[in-house]
Write the C-alpha cells for this entry.
Amino acid sequence: MNDRVKPNPWDVAREQFDRAASYLDLDPGIREMLRHPQRELTVYFPVQMDDGSVRVFTGYRVHHNTALGPSKGGIRYHPAVTLDEVRALAMWMTWKCAVAGLPYGGAKGGVVCNPKEMSEKELENLTRRYATEISILMHPEGDIPAPDVNTNPQIMAWIMDTYSMHRGFTTPAVVTGKPLEVGGSKGRVEATGRGVMVTTLEALRVLDIPVKGARVVVQGYGNVGAVAAYLLQDAGARIVAVSDSRGGIYNPKGLDARDVLRHKRETGSVVEYPGAEFVSNEELLELPCDVLIPAALENQITRANADRVQARIVAEGANGPTTPEADDILAERGVFVIPDILCNAGGVIVSYFEWVQDLQHFFWSEEEINQRLSKLMRENFRAVLAVSRERDVTMRTAAYIRAIDRVARAIAIRGIYP
Ligand code: NAD
C-alpha cells in the first residue's frame, strides 16, 4: 500500500461523481441530494470476549440512495474502517447497482475491528450484536447486506439467523452471500471474480490483445482476486504475479493460479510460493504486464505511482483502487481502466439473483446463474463502452454517466416528498 498519499475515499467518491455529473443536465437540487448519503447510523456496542471482558466496538450502516429500490451493500470488518470510507462505499454501491440495471439503491456497513485477532466465538458475538443494532435499517424489502472484506458466508448466516430470531420466522432474503444450506445462491462465491474475468476479456478484445498468453498481475489474492486469476488462466491468460497483505510473488513465465491458492490456504499467504520471486505490493503494481487487477483495498494507484503502471488494462476488482489524479494520468497514457462499478459488479448481480431466489423460494442451477451473470456483465460493458465512445470520455466517466442518469431520472419521476 502506498502510505505517502492516502486520499479520503469519500472525497474521491464525490469528486468522481462531480466529474461525471458535469456531463449531465442535472437539476441542481437532485445533484446536491446525490452528493449526500440519505441516512447514516453509527452504533457503539458491547461484545463479550473469550476472557470474560467486555469490549465496545464501533459500527456503521450508511444508505446512500434508495430511489431505485431497497439498498444493497456489503459489510466490512477492518481496523481501518471509518464513516467516510463507508459513505464512499455506499455511494459506489448506488452507481454499481444502477449501471448493472438492478432494482437496488446503495448502502454499506462496517465494523472497526481486527477479525484476525478474534476467535470464532468473539466474531459470532460481534456479528449478532452488530446485526441487532443495525436491524432498525435492515429488511428484506428495505436494506439487504452482503459480504465485503473480512466477512464471509458464515457471518451472513449469523446475520440471517439473528434477524430471523427477532422476527420469529426465517427470513433468508434479508442478507445475501449466505451458505447454500440456508438460502445462498450457487455461483455467489465466484461471482465477483467471474465478472472481473468477463469484463477483462471484453477489454482485451477492444484493445486487440489476444487472451492466450496475456500477462496478468493481481493485487490481493482473496475472494475476488484469486477467482479472477484462475478463471482468466482457464481462458488462456498467464498469471505472472499475485500478492496479499504480506507481499507478492512474481514469475514472468507464469504461476499456477489454483496451486497458489492452495498454498495460500495451507500457509496463510501467497509469499514463499516455490519457484517465484518475492515482490513488494508497490513493486507488483509496476510490473510489466497486459492486465493489472487491483483486488485488495482503496487508493493503490495514486499520482505517486500511476505513471509507472505498465499494464494496458486496469481491471478494478477492488472498490476505489484508483484515485482521480491517477485516473487522469492513466487516461493520458492510454491505459484502459475498467472501473470498479462496472468491473466488480458480478457480486451484487448474483446477490440480486440470490435475493430473487429467496423471495420466490425457488432455486436456479449454477449454469443458469453463470450464464445470466456473464450475459449481463457483457451487455453492461458494451453499453458503457458505447457511452465512452459517443461522449469521448473514460470508461469510468461513462459508467458514472449511465448510473447517475438512471438514478436522477428515478428521483425526478418519483418527485421530492412531500
Ligand atoms: P478478501 O478479504 O477475500 O481478500 C482481500 C485480499 O487482499 C486478501 O488476500 C488480503 O491479504 C489482500 N490484501 C489486504 N491488504 C492488502 C494490501 N495492502 N496489499 C495487497 N493485498 C492486500 O476480500 P475480497 O472480498 O476479495 O475484496 C477485495 C476487494 O474487492 C475489496 O475492495 C472489496 O470491496 C471488493 N469487492 C468485493 C466483492 C465481493 O463479492 N467479495 C464484490 C465487489 C467488490
